[in-house]
Task: structure prediction
Amino acid sequence: MALRAVLLRQLRVPVQTLALASRKSQPWSFSSCIRLMSSHDDHLSKEQVIGRVLDVVKSFPKVDPSRVTPDVHFQKDLGLDSLDNVEIIMAIEEEFKLEIPDKEAVKIDSCNLAIEYVYNHPMAA
Amino acid sequence: MSFKLRSVKVPANSASLEEARARVFDFFRTACRSIPQIMDIYNLQDVVTVSQLRSTIASEIHKNSSITNSKVIDLLLFKGMEELSNITEHAKQRHHVIGQYVVGQ
Result:
């Protein structure tokens, strides 16, 4: 066991020097190296989010597509009821592959809030 | 008669209409989230879309929208949960699901 520990400690040294050597020899800056394997740089743009949210709302059967604007209120302007509100939020969840917790879903009452929520969500696809 | 997951919850006993409304929305969200699983179990991909099934569930809930007694709403929710459990546990067959929820909507 002690021999194994000693051997492993010995083995650690070459790897460290190799990493240091390669980093120094490459002419790239540090900032370009750290994002090589990142999967967090594919956020949606605001126009994309607005377009897709409006499409979801317009394709809802009880909604008149010509009245849909980015700041329309579901219950006041479009004449829907609370269950239709929940249904639209579920449709948005399906479109952007999200899972919106109930506490947040209760607050989403209009297109504005929906667009903001989706845009600020890190997992929106 | 065995229900697997959903009947483990304590039967609802809503004190007010607001609480019953919250339970209805919870039930609706649970049902909508299990739609992809249902479409997978019964191979409904070519027959109907997810949004159509969602609208069907919403219209079923709308049929009873005029009820004001919270205990009656609780009972209807229990029956809805039972139906949803039956469907997701594959206790029904494809023609049942298609006949009841796809055709004639």
